[in-house]
Amino acid sequence: MRNNDRAGREKRGFAPRQGGKNPPRPARRTYDIPPAERADGPFETLPARPHDRARAEALPVRPADRAQTRTLPVQPHGERPPRMERAPRAHHEERDAQPPENLLVGRNPIREALKSGAPLEKLLVAEGDLSGAARDIVRMARDAGVVVQFVERYRLDQIYPAHQGLLAFRSARAYATIEDILAHAKEKGEEPLIVVLDQVTDPHNLGAIIRSSECAGAHGVVIPERRAAGLTPACEKAAAGALAHLPVARVKNLNRALEELKRAGLWIVAAALEGENALTADLSGPLALVIGSEGEGISRLTLSLCDRRVTLPMLGNISSLNASVAAGVLLYQVVRARGGGA
Q1: pLDDT tens digit string along 106-135?
Q2: Rounded Cα gap, residues 243 and 246, in angstroms
Q3: Any idea what the Cα angle at residue 63 is, between residues 57 and 65, rounded to 5°?
Q4: 99-170 homologous superfamily
Q5: Of 207, 288, 196, whose CA–CA distance to 244 is shortest?
Q6: Within 10 A of 310 (CB to CB), how many other CB atoms are there?
Q7: Is the overall model pTM greater than 0.85, yes or no?
Q8: Most-buried pick from 6, 126, 281, 323 (CB within 10 A)?
């Protein structure tokens, strides 16, 4: 039986044991890596691993080349390079951000400002279901004549994150009425001169026009509620103290305000691109001077309500002036027509 098993194992390729021991294992097969030849040096055998091969190719072969290699400076022990200052994270900035100077945040401050009669530019309300307290604040703002705008919540987040769904902007000064402006001219015994602004949205332009109007002896400025700049801190700064002496009226409908001024005996004069030469036109008498924005000018309906149109000659390559500059030039044309302030 054992002889048969041994014969079968030899047939299957198994070598018989010699002296009861296994035969020696064959040696492992090795592969010789061909030497790499360099143009400027002798042959060098490269290592087998890819990253070692790349490192060996980067090293110079000749001793003279190795001596010319640059060594990196060694940092002394215990010394570290200075650490760069990191910028604060964005959520820290949002958390520690301070509201603008004229911004009212929270329901209680806004409610108390409305109760005290403080002048407010506008009230921004987040769209959605309003609670009972928020509805009361909106009602109080409308009763006080404050502009109420419903906007998406992310708009409020961009202004101030902790808004509670309501944000209000204070006015730098309290607004007057057209009756107050006409009464102011009557008290001074002068023919009324009123500046009416249409779609002037830049507070710096508004402040500069208010300053020029006060210097030229105007009795007041009229601005619309919407699509126009208000009496913000930027406007107050550009006015350079003129808001303390010149009343500014804010009206819901500018065209109705022009009709009211017409009934009071004022001529409505518009500053337009086409019209009489303002340098030679007769600008005496009670006037309401209408100034439009730089981009859109005076709206079509408002322009149709004006009695006259005047223009300043443009002698250069640019076809228009800044709104505040044009207002200043026209105001002093009115001063010249009224006798030069004598």
Answers
A1: 788 888 888 888 888 888 888 876 777 888
A2: 5
A3: 60
A4: Ribosomal protein L30/S12 (3.30.1330.30)
A5: 207
A6: 21
A7: no
A8: 323
